[in-house]
Amino acid sequence: MKFSFSEEQEEFRTALRRFLQAKSPTTEVRKQMQTEQGYDPAVWQQMCNELALASLHIPEEYGGAGFGIADLSIACEEMGRALLCSPYFGSVVLAATAIREAGSEDQRRQFLPAFAAGETIGALCVVEGRGGWAAEAISMVAQKDGNSYRLSGDKSHVVDGLMASVLVVVAKKPDGELGLFIVKAEADGVSRKAQASMDPTRKLAAVSFSNTPAELLNGDNASGAYERTLDIALACLAGEMVGGAERLREDALEYVSMRMQFGRSIASFQVTKHKAADMLLDVELAKSAAYYAAAAVDEGDADARGVVALAKAGASDAYIQTAVHAVQMHGGIGFTFDNDTHLWFKRAKASEVFLGDANQNRERMLQNWGDDS
Amino acid sequence: MTTMTEDEVRSQVRDYLEANWDPNRGLVEWRGMLAESGWGMPHWPKEWLGRGLPLGMTAIVDEEFNKFGAIGAAKMGIRVLAAATILEHGTDLQKQKYLKGIMTGEETWCQLFSEPGSGSDLAGAATRADFKDGKWIINGQKVWTTSAHHADYALLLARTDWDAVKHKGLSYFILDMHQPGVQVHQLKQMNGHASFNQVFITDAAIEANMQVGELGEGWKVATTTLMNERRGADSARRYESGTDRPERIYEEERQEIATVMAPYTWYPQRTGRVDLLIDQAKAMGVWNDPDIRQEIAKTLTIAKSAEWTARRARAASQAGKPQGPEGSIGKLAASIVARSANLTHTKIAGPNAMLTGEEDGAGGVVAEILVSTPAISIAGGTDEIQRNIISERILKMPKENRTDTDRPFRDVPRNQVG
To answer: What sign results for the dihedral spanned by CA atoms A61, A113, A187, A153?
Structure first.
């Protein structure tokens, strides 16, 4: 299913788009983005209870729907399109995936059902300063404490970290190997504060740990589990980004089609038309890569890691380019606060570097490039 | 229109081939038999060398031919467009005279549409056709004419009425290329190859019965040709390679392919040869250079994304879904891929990008890429025209105001020829 969606997937997309049109118009986005919490719990409830969105890629044996990453990516694409303010990416895409990939059977049974029901909101704590999401940039070391561990140190850029009740922390084990640890947000020594996020529709937090009790997710090979978590998150982020880019493109086209200058529609100027054509090309190419990447993960392709990185690199470039064009096509009003374009522009800018920028993902792509790619 | 099922078609093709296919026959003799039986062009009408099968059935017939290793009718080049145009708009006399030679491959065709003064603006053709003493007398210059140097006949678009508006003053003719008034000169490209020709026409003559379609309806007839050109772009590729089997008919087919394909050895290079990037980087010892790696990954990203976009378009069309925007951007995407690949090959080559031929470190291929990719943004519709098409047909943006369609053509400002 790399080149088309099933009828069920199309129906799912249509239903979700309708829901988000009703629940996440830009008036609502503007309202939520100004709150510290950053989302409407009533909408979250509906998303989880009526549409079961938090359960999509969680296996059925852990209370989920057992769908694939392609389905999860469709959800993200529609949320990106609507710029939904919600802890979906931090909790479902990052934290639940990390537990799914890194947890033992018992730990999955313990944690995932509440994630699937939307009762637990989680967050994945990785970044330490400038180092970003690369595993080799992590220096926090867990200390052994009997059968358990204790964590000390600072993590930042934690998506949805402030509202999470369960934190998954990526740190090194005492032996130097990578480990993923579960920390209760109310545990001793955890302190959190909101970071002033350039994209106010996606809340970031700084989270500090001081001798905080932590439980190791002890499935096999934490390092592999973290990379798989990144693959899935990158595929979903690429989906979210192409959803946003397409919305920007459509809105800009609608605007130039209404606007008259010099006695004619500005959409009749070739300079405008050619820009619109280029925007369509950028977005369609990035969409194809995002769709292919999500399906490649589901199908377990040997080159899936490279392809996913390709999709994120492509989406990074396409989303910000589309946003720049969209502002330009709106003219002066395009860089005002009242006009909605900046809402997506900021999401595009923040997403450009989230989970690694285009350059980093291009390098990840080549390091995982198969001969048959 | 026949109501035969797929299985019936398959079994009839098989019966015919079992009884008649013999690789030791000559190519022309065999294709003459195909013309008689209707299996050469089964979608042509029964009365004109076909079997009246729906176009969709031709793939099935081809499959059966392939299973036998049997060679089909001649399909390379402009001949298929000539046949489609003549079948739709031609007279019985024209069909009688030309269809068989097209199918057997004995006669070769070219297309005299573009002019130095009308490329993207094809309907601005200014080659004249004047009616004198019962014949059309042609004067003008055509360009970008593939195969003109060995063509027997040409599809010609010429202006017969200078007082009519642009699109209404054109007529469509069949021109015999073997006459003194037709001079063909090769057009050498910046990469040194000569794949096209310029055709200078001075008082060439056309019999009155070689006009195709009504007088002044040339643009409409040309549209049929162009639509078939677009449709055929995919199927033509299959004929780029023959088989190496020893029998006589395969040898003759190999010669035919070699003649037709000779001007196009550089065509792969104009796409940018993304497939060579990684090997070239390794060969030049720069595979671990982080800047080079970024450039390679950028090019691969758009190339793979373009490939997957084309696959999406194909999947939609196979599922019978209406074509979305993904189906209309392939040509423009190919230009961008080629441009990106050119830049990346240049960086990989380093100082060797200053060299050409064998000196370029890749047997001349890289040097050829570097000077061939500019053509892809122009040939078959410039990037600018593609963007107009995308914005007007897909995005439904309004056309730019025109000043050439509301007055007699003679009053429209235009280039001096040459």
So the answer is: positive
Q: Which residues pair with A211 in a beta bridge?
A: none
Tens of pLDDT, residue by residue over B239-259, are: 445 678 889 999 999 998 888
Average pLDDT score over residue span B336-362: 93
Q: Does domain B82-235 have CATH number 2.40.110.10?
A: yes
- B115 φ, ψ (degrees, to nearest 5): -135, 165
Say if the Cβ atoms of B308 and A286 lie within 8 Å.
Answer: no
> And the tokens for B263?
């001007």
- Choose among A267, A285, A369: nearest Cβ to B397: A267
A223-367 adopts what CATH topology?
Answer: Butyryl-CoA Dehydrogenase, subunit A; domain 3 (1.20.140)
Give the DSSP letter of residue B415.
P
Taking the Cβ of residue B382 and every Cβ of chain A, the question of whether any pair is shorter than 8 Å is answered with no
Judged by CB atoms closer than 8 Å, whether chains meet at A363 and B293 is answered as: yes
- Choose among B278, B314, B398: nearest Cβ to A267: B398
Which residue of A lies nearest to B319 if distances are taken between CA atoms?
A4
Cβ neighbourhood burial of B351 (10 Å; 0-12, 13-18, 19+): exposed
Q: How many CB pairs under 8 A join A and B?
A: 124
Residue B235 pLDDT > 60, yes or no?
A: no
Count of H-run helices and E-run strands, chain B: 13, 8
The token duo for A274 is: 């050619």
Q: At A177, which amino acid appears?
A: E
Inform me whether the C-beta atom of residue A367 falls under 8 Å from chain B C-beta atoms: no
Residue by residue, DSSP assigns A231-292 as HHHHHHHHHHHHHHHHHHHHHHHHHHHH-EETTEEGGGSHHHHHHHHHHHHHHHHHHHHHHH
B390 to chain A: nearest residue by CA? A277
- Kindly report the backbone phi and psi dihedral angles of residue A19, in degrees, each rounded to the nearest multiple of 5, phi listed first: -60, -45
**Domain boundaries in chain A?**
7-116, 122-220, 223-367
> Is there a contact between A288 and B308 if contact means CB atoms under 8 Å apart?
yes
Please name the amino acid found at residue A244: G
Domain A122-220: assigned CATH number = 2.40.110.10
Domain map (residue ranges) of chain B: 8-73, 82-235, 266-380
Q: Which residues of A188-206 are buried (b: 16+ CB within 10 A; e: fewer)?
A: eebebeebebebbbbbbbb
CB-based contact (8 Å) between A321 and chain B? no
B262 in contact with chain A, both atoms CB, cutoff 8 A? no
Lowest mean pLDDT among A162-166, A174-178, B334-338, B357-361: B357-361
Classify domain A7-116 at the CATH superfamily level: Acyl-CoA dehydrogenase/oxidase, N-terminal domain (1.10.540.10)
